[in-house]
């Protein structure tokens, strides 16, 4: 009898452990090419099929959150004309618009197909007020193209992958995770590293590496496999080396600074992802991010969030 009870207890513990493993939160990281040229304009179509098959319950995007004041302090006069325009649009709306949380939540409870033009206009204005760039663009896209999305390729990850995936999954809000507070310093380090590399051979190494990567992508691109090729670990590691300046044979001040700023940005992005995933009820989370960030995010998430299962789209 004692042996039977021991067996039953062990079986129950085993079952609980299996259930715990089954409910482990997971993050699928998809590396993107951002904007693609016209000749490969349909490159995101296979990536969208892959993302739908994963069936995510939350979508994380490379955009700063509305309350990331440090990033917006830079972006309001930074490198991106779109971010700059959005910041000043948000600033102007905050002076004249009064948000209505009850109306906002009631619209989010509707299906996309039931949202009226007035609903979409309200959401677009409210999201601008909240300085929520990702979702402001998402609802602007819905108003322009409808719930089926654009029939023609937009040639960008948002219109061809992220927004269509969110509509398909009935995910009403995208989750922002980017951090751009040190992008100015990073770009300055990049320029400095490039100047230093003219005389020490570093630039020649980078040019050779990039040429090899370009040539290897030609055949996959012809057969609409650019997304799959980009998400191969070998491709991701090359992109990471180029962006983090770890390809250099001669360590210089500019390249070392660039590497530090790149790694720190990935660290903050991973923290934004990890903390939000851990605090949410979502078990299948997809991160759609520029492919250069994938290796860095994988490393940071695996190191700092061991309870999360991290999967790369190409594996």
The beta-strand count equals 5
End-to-end separation in angstroms reads 48 Å
How many domains? The number is 1
Radius of gyration: 22 Å
Share of residues in helices:
55-70%
**How many H/I helices?**
14
Largest sheet: 5 strands, parallel
**H and E string:** HEHEHHHHHHEHHHHHEHE
Architecture overview:
There is one protein chain. With 315 residues, the chain is α/β, with parallel strands linked by helices. It has one domain. The chain is built from 14 helices and 5 strands. The chain has helices at 2-22, 44-54, 69-75, 81-94, 101-108, 117-129, 133-145, 157-169, 183-200, 202-222, 226-230, 233-244, 253-279, 294-304; strands at 26-32, 58-64, 175-178, 284-290, 309-312. A 5-stranded parallel β-sheet has the order 3-2-4-1-5, sandwiched between helices. Helix 2 (44-54) runs parallel beside helix 8, helix 6 packs antiparallel against helix 7 (133-145) and helix 9 (183-200) runs antiparallel to helix 13. The longest helix is centred in the C-terminal third of the chain and has 27 residues, at 253-279. It is globular.
């Amino acid at each position: 009898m004692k042996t039977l009870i021991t067996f039953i207890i062990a079986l129950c513990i085993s079952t609980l452990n299996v259930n715990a493993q089954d409910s482990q939160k997971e993050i699928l990281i998809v590396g993107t090419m951002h904007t693609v040229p016209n000749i490969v304009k349909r490159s995101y179509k296979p990536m969208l099929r892959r993302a739908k098959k994963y069936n995510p319950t939350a979508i994380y995007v490379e955009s700063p959150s509305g309350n990331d004041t440090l990033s917006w302090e830079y972006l309001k006069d930074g490198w991106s004309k779109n971010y700059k325009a959005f910041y000043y649009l948000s600033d102007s709306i905050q002076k004249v618009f009064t948000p209505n949380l009850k109306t906002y939540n009631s619209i989010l409870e509707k299906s996309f197909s039931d949202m009226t033009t007035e609903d979409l206009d309200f959401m677009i204005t409210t999201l601008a007020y909240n300085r929520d760039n990702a979702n402001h663009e998402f609802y602007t896209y819905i108003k322009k193209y409808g719930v089926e999305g654009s029939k023609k390729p937009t040639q960008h990850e948002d219109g061809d992958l992220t927004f269509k995936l969110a509509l398909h999954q009935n995910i009403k809000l995208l989750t922002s995770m980017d951090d751009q507070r040190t992008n100015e310093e990073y770009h300055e380090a990049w320029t400095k590293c490039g100047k230093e590399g003219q005389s020490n051979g570093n630039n020649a190494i980078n040019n050779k590496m990039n040429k090899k990567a370009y040539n290897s992508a030609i055949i996959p691109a012809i057969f609409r496999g650019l997304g799959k090729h980009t998400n191969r670990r070998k491709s991701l590691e090359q992109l990471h080396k180029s962006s983090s300046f770890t390809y250099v044979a001669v360590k210089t001040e500019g390249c070392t600074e660039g590497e530090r700023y790149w790694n720190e940005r990935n660290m903050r992005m991973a923290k934004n992802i990890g903390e939000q995933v851990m605090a949410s009820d979502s078990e299948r989370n997809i991160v759609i991010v520029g492919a250069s960030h994938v290796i860095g995010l994988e490393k940071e998430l695996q190191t700092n969030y061991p309870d999360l299962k991290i999967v790369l789209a190409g594996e």
